[in-house]
Amino acid sequence: MAVAVLATSCGEKDAFTINGKLPDGTYNGQQVYLKTLDENWKDLVAIDTVNVVDGEFVFKGLSKEGAILHFISLDDAPDYMSKPIPVVVEPGHIEVSLDSISTVKGTPSNNAYQAFAGKTNVINAEIKAIAQKSKQDTANVALQADLKKQYKNKNNQLTKETFDFIKGNIQSQMGTYFLTKNYYRFSAEQLKELVPSIKPEYKSIARIQKIEAVAQALNATSTGKVFIDIKGKTPEDKDAALADYAGKDKYVLVDFWASWCPPCREEMPKLVELYKEYKDKGLEIVGISLDKTNADWVNGIKILNITWPQISDLKFWDSEGAAIYGISSIPHLMLLDKDGKILARGIDADEAKAKIAELLK
Fold first, then answer.
1. What is the residue-wise DSSP string for 28-59?
2. pLDDT above 70 coverage of the chain, percent
């Protein structure tokens, strides 16, 4: 009897219930899936399925392994509900509402996630509104400059909220998983703060190993360090290297870009003007392309009026040059001094122009 009582007590202590609601009765009879991450944190695997009855669904079970990140998805969801909803399965009563803006609450981990999601949903909506406004009056230079500043400020705010949430939950699977989704946002200093706190049991996951490699690369190529060479081919298939230009008594602006990258193409006219103004005054620009094919690369160079040296290994996101410098998003500009020392990185075209104008005044 003592064993039976103990078993019941443990069962109650570990028990979880997920009560879900949908906005109307049109989903009745559909299946709802409770999914978990596979061992590589790459795909989702369904572990339980229930039907929607009167606009509601329920999952029940035991959470013996502590707080584990799961996802809930609908069998035939509209576009606005097509992404699986994160939910941390942990002991307690969890309430889920699936709608255009879904919510999860009821237990400590889910309440923490919901607070984070609420803040970032607001910021993302503001960013979207700024982006839409920027398309309405493209000829207004002053307005565009102001909107760009607003966009950057909101994006920085989003990065801070994301960093704070991950830092506060980095010891959990939830926090570490969100790091794998957002690490590209963070600086070398921020990654240096987060990566050592990742639990040892997650270190064998390929995504975590990639983040560790990026953190190491960013640290090795941070401001004040001497550049590390990048080797590849020119568009004409000739051998080329960053060392052919860096450290040769000129300031060198290194542009990590690709013809398939819309933000890169948007920035390119500013770099074209910058090169025209300063190429004979002590500036060189070197493009490091993350293109997939030589044809796309060459076509992009022609269409965008690029006249400065180009290097690529045509390996897309497996670019060796990008890996050396821990590049996780493009465009990414890096400025080298005349001796090849890194003066700045992660700057945009306007910031690059301001720095170069000061250096070459």
1. TT-EEEEEEE-TTSSSEEEEEEEE-BTTEEEE
2. 97
> Which uninterrupted H or E stretch holds 241?
strand 239-241
Any idea what DSSP says for residue 88?
E
Annotated catalytic, 261? yes
* Annotated active-site residue in 166, 174, 261, 286: 261
Domain with residues 2-102, CATH architecture? Sandwich (2.60)
Catalytic residue among 117, 264, 290, 322: 264
Q: Which CATH architecture has domain 231-359?
A: 3-Layer(aba) Sandwich (3.40)
Is residue 264 part of the annotated active site? The answer reads yes
| Residue of 159 and 65 predicted with greater confidence | 159
Cα distance between residue 293 and residue 311, in whole Å: 13
pTM: 0.87
What is the CB-side half-sphere exposure of residue 125 using CA atoms within 13 A?
8
User: What are the sequence ranges of the domains in the chain?
Assistant: 2-102, 109-220, 231-359
